[in-house]
Design brief:
Elements: E1 11-13, E2 22-27, H1 32-40, E3 44-56, E4 61-75, E5 82-97, E6 120-122, E7 126-128, H2 130-140, H3 165-175
Parallel strand pairs: 5-6
Antiparallel strand pairs: 1-7, 2-3, 3-4, 4-5
Protein name: DUF177 domain-containing protein
Pfam family, one: YceD
Region (Disordered): 151-176
Amino acid sequence: MKHIEPPLQHIFDLSDLSQAGAEVVVEASPEDLPKLAKWAGIDSVKRFTATVGLRRLSQTRFNYEANLTADVVQSCVVTLEPVESRISREIARELQQAPRLPQETVAELTLAAGDDDVPETILSLDYDLAAPLLEEFVLAIDPYPRKPGVAFTPPVEPETPQSSPFAVLKALKDRD
């Protein structure tokens, strides 16, 4: 599988984060907006901006909270006309730096079913603040956008029922 470079990155060094925390604005530049639209598989992105709040919980744990707003244009699934919509999401995650293990040690992954409150493990303190924003952005995109007031009407079926292959066989049998 080919690795696709994300259309937007904002690397932040979490080791520099003070106890007071930090507030960072992540915004797509006009040059990044077409790349973001292509990456998300939509017609266009007019605006993509987020305010990310970071707090240090311990030496290796961090709190990530963000408010994301994006204005997008998609094609209506019925008429193919442009449909504009706004995406607004609040994102909250807890990050935890992975423990440093000797290279000979192989760690086994264990997943706990239904345990959504587990901190997200990060490998480096150089963290991409845009990655969670991009994840939430693509999840929030309407997969079947419709222009307001437009409804899909299926084609009308013909009134005469078509004969089935079994009906034809029965007619042949009855003729004999």
